[in-house]
């Protein structure tokens, strides 16, 4: 292999037949994963970035799931400039109608309607015979086509479906008007060779297959989602469904950044191309991590903190002589910027706004004001303010914009002579409340104050601290995961004081839980027309 600089021109001109449509489902399958709840504002921000980076189709949500999902899809439909805006629906007509209503304002709109076709799903989940499912496929696609010419049909659990039945359903869906056929590996069970053969076979056997674009949708239960997706493309699929950072149900979905860069860096063996501006991948990863509070694994391909770090002496030596010795793509090609010492307490508003722009943020009005005040406060306490500090600060500002409970002040007495004691003041929907509590350690005392002020039954499932940058004055970034009944949420808080960061993270999670409580759980996915 000869490593090629990703920015270098590819050996041959791009042809239309090799173009792969990127269908991003961060806001639907991604948001569906336990703990990854986003607020309305956060969803709009993610959608805007996806649109800017060249995503072709944004699956903005599942409109029947709740009022919140409906309004988010609807607002994204109004705002999106380039991408097709898509909503998900089951086979039930009320789902499809609601979805159509949500995406109505979009300049380019798609209804994605799905139905299970595998024996195990048909028998136990749908409790339907195959001939009934077959009729439902025709009915759901026909219904969706009343609203838009762009209809995607998915055979849920497609990789465990009998091939003859799958081919019949695909043919019927295309005949009824489906323009995209998605065959998902819903349970992350397939392998690259098998998935390749599946697409090849279906495309060869279905007589009208040339009238639809075929799509891959893979889950990562066996760590094969990216490899399977690329194998499906080799089998003739020309749409990849994926999410930023690979978030999604269980082990997640195909990671957008990984499939895109695989095709770009190894284009001689993966000869397909996408419209994605790869220099925005890092920014997108950071934004999604911030709004979902899902940390990105340090060694994650493309966007992990260590993805371009060279620790060993031998590697560092090689890198100094020639970067291609150990680097198959440049950090810049995926939007990694060199960490810089940015500003201190003398930096003014102009420099701050410039820095935000450099980091890819667009804040205005109160949000910008608040972020600047927080930056000044941080610069007063911390000698060196790095890019990562600014990112943590702004991400928190965005994530907490809609919070109903806010931390006003906190003081803690800790040390060798217990008991540890915390005094906390909160603003709860405009009302101020104060509490003082003891605890088995300072963090316990802080969390006891929150429980006393905002009584709740949530279980603390995860409490994690890491330093945003190096040095003893570094900001602490705390992640907290709470669960209540079947709902799980995660939130982050950052502050040079670890206890303040802990309180912010816990309150952030409670705020998200309040949003989640308002959501109605969609009935089990069994609805029929
Ligand atoms: O994994 C899956 O099967 C899905 C469908 C709804 C497309 O997410
Ligand atoms: Zn899925």
TrEMBL record:
Pathway noted in the entry: Amino-acid biosynthesis; L-leucine biosynthesis; L-leucine from 3-methyl-2-oxobutanoate: step 1/4
EC number(s) on file: 2.3.3.13
Gene3D superfamilies: 1.10.238.260, 3.30.160.270, Aldolase class I
PROSITE patterns from the UniProt entry: AIPM_HOMOCIT_SYNTH_1, AIPM_HOMOCIT_SYNTH_2, PYR_CT
Gene Ontology MF terms in the entry: 2-isopropylmalate synthase activity; acetyl-CoA C-acetyltransferase activity; manganese ion binding
Highest taxon above the source species: Bacteria
InterPro entries linked to this entry: 2-IPM_HCS-like, 2-isopropylmalate_synth_dimer, AIPM/Hcit_synth_CS, Aldolase_TIM, LeuA/HCS_post-cat, LeuA_allosteric_dom_sf, LeuA_bact_synth, PYR_CT
Boundaries of every Pyruvate carboxyltransferase domain copy: 20-282
Cofactor(s) essential for the protein: Mn(2+)
Keywords: Amino-acid biosynthesis, Branched-chain amino acid biosynthesis, Cytoplasm, Leucine biosynthesis, Manganese, Metal-binding, Transferase
Swiss-Prot/TrEMBL catalytic activity: 3-methyl-2-oxobutanoate + acetyl-CoA + H2O = (2S)-2-isopropylmalate + CoA + H(+)
Residues the record lists as binding Mn(2+): 29, 217, 219, 253
Gene Ontology biological-process annotations: L-leucine biosynthetic process
Positions of region (Regulatory domain): 406-529
GO-annotated cellular components: cytosol
Enzyme class, UniProt record, top EC level: transferase
Subunit architecture: Homodimer.
Similarity comment: family membership: Belongs to the alpha-IPM synthase/homocitrate synthase family. LeuA type 1 subfamily.
Function, in words: Catalyzes the condensation of the acetyl group of acetyl-CoA with 3-methyl-2-oxobutanoate (2-ketoisovalerate) to form 3-carboxy-3-hydroxy-4-methylpentanoate (2-isopropylmalate).
UniProt name for this protein: 2-isopropylmalate synthase
């Amino acid at each position: 292999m000869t490593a090629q600089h990703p920015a270098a021109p590819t050996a041959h001109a791009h042809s239309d037949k090799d173009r792969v449509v990127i269908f991003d489902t961060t806001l639907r399958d991604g948001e569906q994963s336990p703990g990854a709840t986003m607020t309305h504002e956060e969803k709009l921000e993610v959608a805007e970035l996806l649109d800017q980076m060249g995503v072709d189709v944004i699956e903005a949500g599942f409109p029947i799931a709740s009022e919140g999902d409906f309004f988010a899809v609807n607002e994204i439909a109004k705002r999106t400039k380039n991408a097709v805006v898509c909503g998900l629906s089951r086979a039930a007509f009320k789902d499809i109608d609601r979805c159509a209503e949500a995406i109505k304002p979009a300049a380019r709109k798609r209804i994605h309607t799905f139905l299970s076709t595998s024996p195990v799903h048909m028998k136990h989940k749908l409790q339907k015979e195959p001939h009934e499912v077959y009729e439902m496929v025709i009915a759901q696609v026909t219904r969706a086509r009343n609203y838009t010419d762009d209809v995607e049909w998915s055979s849920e659990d497609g990789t465990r479906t009998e091939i003859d039945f799958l081919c019949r359903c695909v043919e019927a869906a295309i005949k009824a008007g489906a323009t995209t056929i998605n065959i998902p590996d819903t349970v992350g069970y397939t392998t690259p060779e098998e998935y390749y053969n599946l697409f090849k076979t279906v495309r060869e056997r279905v007589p009208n297959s040339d009238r639809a674009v075929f799509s891959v949708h893979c889950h990562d239960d066996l760590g094969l989602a990216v490899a399977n997706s690329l194998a499906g493309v080799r089998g003739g699929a020309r749409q990849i469904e994926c999410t930023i950072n690979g978030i999604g149900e269980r082990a997640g979905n195909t990671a957008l950044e990984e499939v895109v860069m695989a095709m770009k860096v190894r284009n001689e063996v993966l000869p397909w191309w996408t419209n994605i501006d790869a220099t925005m991948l890092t920014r997108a990863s950071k934004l999604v991590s911030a709004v979902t509070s899902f940390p990105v694994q340090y060694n994650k391909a493309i966007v992990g903190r260590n993805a371009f770090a060279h620790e060993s002496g031998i590697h560092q030596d090689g890198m100094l002589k020639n970067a291609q010795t150990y680097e198959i793509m440049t950090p810049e090609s995926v939007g990694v910027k060199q960490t810089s010492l940015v500003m201190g307490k003398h930096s003014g508003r102009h420099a701050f706004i410039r820095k935000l722009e450099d980091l890819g943020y667009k804040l205005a009005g109160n949000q910008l004001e608040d972020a600047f005040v927080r930056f000044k406060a941080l610069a007063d306490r911390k000698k060196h303010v790095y890019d990562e500090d600014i990112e943590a600060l702004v991400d928190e500002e965005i994530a907490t914009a809609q919070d109903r409970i806010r931390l006003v002040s906190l003081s803690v007495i800790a040390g060798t002579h217990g008991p540890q004691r915390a005094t906390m003041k909160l603003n709860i929907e405009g009302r101020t409340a104060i509490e003082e509590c003891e605890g088995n350690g300072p963090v316990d005392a802080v969390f006891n104050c929150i429980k006393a002020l905002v009584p709740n039954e949530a279980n603390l499932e995860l409490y994690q601290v890491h330093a945003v940058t190096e040095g003893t004055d570094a900001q602490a970034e705390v992640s907290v995961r709470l669960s209540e009944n079947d709902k799980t949420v995660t939130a982050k808080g950052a502050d040079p004081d670890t206890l303040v960061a802990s309180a912010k993270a816990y309150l952030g999670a409670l705020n998200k839980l309040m949003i989640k409580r308002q959501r109605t759980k969609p009935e089990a996915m069994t609805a029929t027309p």
